[in-house]
Amino acid sequence: MDKLSVMKAFCRIVERGSFSRAAEDLGVSAALLSREVKLLEESLETVLLTRTTRSMSLTDHGRRFYDDARDIVDAVARVEDGIRQSASTVSGPLKIGCSNSFGEAIIGPMLPGFLAEYPDVRVTLALEERVVDIIEEGIDLTLRVGAVLQDSALIARKVGTFHQRLFASPIYLAKHGTPQSPADIEGHRIAGFLLADHLLEWALTGPEGSVTISVNPDLRISNSIVLSDILASGYGIGPLPSFVSNGPEARGALTRVLPNHELPAREIYAVTAARLGMDARVLAFIKHLRRALAD
Question: Which of 114, 146, 157, 262 has the lowest CB atom count within 10 Å?
Fold first, then answer.
């Protein structure tokens, strides 16, 4: 027997003065309510309601049970309302995890606007070049590329897609020549992203279809921002995600190499513990993140 449900039902019966009217309010049958009250009386070993074909009245024990049950039901309702209101309020601590380059390129610039809109949120941004255990480390939300989740306690929401293209500085290309086809990459100095699955092979898609070329980067870096700076200094050719390359390309510090070709696009996911799936802080942050990536 669900005591709280029975208490709620009993209070509704008393307040409506009828099993049938209470049953209609609760969306159940009058027979079910009658059985529940009978079981309640049996468990308490006393009579709570006296019933005839025309009337219903509380016994002394019934009056006492109703008064106490009403207090309990009201208290539970207040707790539930308070939790719902708190859960829908964007406030409190929010711990976010992501890579250094994504944090510097995307999260850092968007945080002031997010905090201006939600000044009661306290953000901790943990930058890590590794896949973190968000439950073990108390992280509310982490950003992953191409998330593959093995843990049912986690959920992933797609928040955006980024392109991966080849870049070099105008200075480097002027000195060493501009490749006109994927085969022309051979002989150029290469810088690679250490953590990428394309460190040693570039699967390029272009007008003629896909072609895979082998590369052996002389320089391998685990941070895309640093890789971008090195390419812009004139080091060589290397791949960059669009969230890093957009700025330097717009400023003229980097130039697209093989502009009709690019590496496979990658999807970005916001990963949370399932228990935080509807948390107002998480949802508000994801909304801002999607906007930032769209911009």
Answer: 146
